[in-house]
Amino acid sequence: MRALRDETERFMLRYKFGMDEVITKLSILREEFNQAHAYNPIEHISSRLKSLDSVVAKMRRKGVEPTFDAIRETITDIAGVRVTCSFVSDAHRLAELLTAQADVRVIQVKDYIARPKENGYQSLHLIVEVPVFLSTGEHPVAVEVQIRTIAMDFWASLEHKIYYKYDRRVPDELLEQLTDAARTAAELDARMERLHRTVHGVPHADSAPREV
Could you tell me the pTM of the whole model? Predict the structure, then answer.
């Protein structure tokens, strides 16, 4: 049991280190933008590591066999990093800058900005793989990166609290109001970006990563 516990802790620690790697890459970009450019697209960076209980629960829901290899292959959101930016175009620009780095491998891109969810949610979700170098050698680790605007981050936070309060059984009337609020947030994002471009011009390209 002690050996299994130690192995599990080492397994989870790799994901923490992978998360730290991605945070470092984004923090370097943020500092570089602060020093070298007139505009910084990164407003805030946060992170979270799933608890072992959450990982086990997700394994059961997905029918994954209880092995480290199976978890590594099928559960890609154990480590998560969230980046909040000011404008929609910032999300695509930051994704481009992160995934262009030589040691970052893109596993999956879900562009909920180009194709919002039915409830109106908009965000850019990436699964990237980064190398973690330990005493046992190099270990590739998957990290989920979510990039979204301040307005949509506020909306998503509110949605999460509502779903938690109602134990995911949210009344239809509230769901309709949430969807309407998401549309309002998207409209606000568009208006603020147009205003920003009118005042400052277009400081960066609007290219988006390819969805895979």
Answer: 0.85
